[in-house]
Amino acid sequence: MKRKVLFVASLIMATATFAQDGLTSKKGEAILPEAGDWALGFDAAPFINYFGNFANGTTNNSMNAAWLSGDSITSMAIVGKMFKDEKTAYRAKIRIGFGSTSNDVLGFYDADADPTTNEVEFTNTNKTSNFNLVLGGGIEKRRGSTRIQGFYGAEALIAFASSNRTWDYGRDYNANWFANETAPIGNIQGSALAERVTERKAGSTFSFGLRAFIGVEWFIAPKVSLGAEYGWGLGLSSTGEGEETIEYWGFTENSTATEPSVQSETLKTGGKSSFQLDTDNNGSSIFGGSGQINLIFHF
Predict the structure, then answer these.
(1) Which of 28, 111, 231, 267 could be disulfide-bonded to 211 (CB atoms 3.0-4.6 Å)?
(2) Are 99 and 129 contacting, i.e. CB atoms less than 8 angstroms apart?
């Protein structure tokens, strides 16, 4: 009986807490945004995944991995707002990202025809670089006067992305390579003993989107809210032609040489384009995320 009384009392206290007018805290602080306020928002999904994984003992639970798991180019964009009044806000999105990685792969080869002697170590290095730019702007309207606020509006977004990948091989092609071995060891691209990629430039991608959105925010503390947003709109994306440079041991076309040598050739790779008119929270949109949840601070 005592447990039931305590349980009912807890419910009453919780109800009383959330039954406040939702406009000010006990310290008199404003709960909801006001005219002239600014806001800064982040995708809350990485935080939720990170802290939620504490319970399952996962070994792949890092904030870096969480941020990189976004499924759209705007998944890591910073969201900013400026409130014209309590019911109207101008919003902007921005992402400027540069990145590069370098991986070394060790290999070994025999310096002569005897596979048991003169083993030589070499290193192949693979470098990848990328650039991402996202810019967006729009207007947001709000409804409600309690901690739970509805909002709707529209925005436009543009994005630009590019990437480049290179391979630096620690062992050069030469005649002894082919005389003494039947297959190379290490990070060799292309056909064995024939060719390998030295550079791959992806075509630049330009994207444009127009979207209408609707959502809900719950103010969990003064000027701090959790929001869920859904959208529908148009997305266009175009990727230009890229280039791939290969290195090979042999002869150029129409060559009159009698001995093979190292050759290099650059080839074009195809581009692509896409068009979408759909809801943008299904994980497949150019601009939208999958179940977007935002953590927003107002000041």
Answers:
(1) 231
(2) yes
Q: Output the tens digit of pLDDT for each of the chain's 299 residues.
A: 444 444 334 433 443 444 444 488 888 889 999 999 999 987 765 555 545 555 555 555 444 443 343 445 555 678 899 999 999 999 999 989 889 999 999 887 766 655 555 677 889 999 999 998 999 999 999 999 899 999 999 999 999 999 999 999 888 876 666 554 444 443 333 333 567 889 999 999 999 999 999 999 999 999 999 998 888 889 899 999 999 998 887 777 777 777 777 888 899 998 999 888 888 765 545 555 545 678 899 99
Sign of the four-CA dihedral 86, 90, 95, 96: negative
- For residue 132 the two structure tokens come to 């991402």
Rounded distance between C-alpha atoms, residue 6 and residue 77, angstroms: 46
**H-helix segments, the chain:** 2-18, 45-52, 63-67, 175-180
Buried b / exposed e along 124-153 (16+ C-beta atoms within 10 A): bebeeeeebbbebebebebeeeebebebeb
Q: How far apart are CA 187 and CA 125, in angstroms?
A: 9
Q: Is residue 243 packed enough to be buried (19+ CB in 10 Å), middle (13-18) or exposed (0-12)?
A: middle
Alpha carbons 221 and 207: distance in angstroms, whole number: 37
CB contact at 8 A, 124 and 105: yes
Those residues whose C-beta lies under 8 Å from the C-beta of residue 275, and which sit 6 or more positions away, are 235, 236
Length of the chain: 299
The whole-angstrom separation of Cα 218 and Cα 148 is: 5
Query: pTM to 2 decimals?
Result: 0.69
